[in-house]
Amino acid sequence: MHEKSIVLLNNAVRDELAAVHQYMYFHFHLDDQGYDLLSSLFRRIAIEEMTHVELLAERILFLKGEVIMEVGEPVKPIHDVAGMLQMACQLEESTILDYNRWANECSANADSVSKKIFEDLVAQEEIHYDQFDNEWDKVKQFGERYLALQSIERSKTISAGTAPAA
Ligand SMILES: [Fe+2]
Ligand SMILES: [Fe+2]
Q1: Which of 4, 75, 81, 119 is deepest in the core (most CB within 10 A)?
Q2: How far apart are CA 51 and CA 54, in angstroms?
Q3: What mean pLDDT comes out for the span 22-40?
Q4: How many Å lie between the centroid of ligand 2 and the Cα of residue 46?
């Protein structure tokens, strides 16, 4: 009955999985470069995107569809911090546009529950966008000095012996 919704929900699963992979990739690299704050931000948001996959999958199964666990895009090997934040902002922005459109499509097809799922996700993606955009602004404004501060924080934690176990 809700074939179109199942297609849209699966499109969203593909995009969410792509975000999980890309953000975890950024998380590893930022951790490796010593930028704890940004590394944790990407890790936390990757986990939130994973919970979005779960929500979408539950709805697909409820509609008696098959969850297609395909990653939308291969991970882009970006290693510079500004490039990572720029890409994350673009990902969130295009997701916000898509989910708004797909909410309207679900509504037009008399599927108000899927519509609400997309609307709730838009609200969360807007928060992600805002968090990445704030960090990107700081990197643009303060450049290497902002990143150096994060490295110094890590060194302080390590020398104080309070570093979290790796
Ligand atoms: Fe998401
Ligand atoms: Fe997001």
Answers
A1: 81
A2: 5
A3: 95
A4: 8
The domain ranges of the chain are: 3-154
Q: Of the bound ligands, which one is closest to the alpha carbon of residue 56? A: 1
Calpha distance 20→6 (Å, rounded): 21
Residue that has been written with the tokens 């979408």 in this structure: 56
| Nearest listed ligand to the Cα of residue 51 | 1
CB atoms inside a 10 Å sphere around CB 127:
12
83: CA distance to ligand 2 center in Å? Answer: 17
Q: How far is the CA of 24 from the centre of ligand 1 (A)?
A: 14
User: d(Cα 74, Cα 53) in Å, to the nearest integer?
Assistant: 17
| Predicted TM-score (pTM) of this structure | 0.92
Fold of the domain built from segment(s) 3-154: Ferritin (1.20.1260)
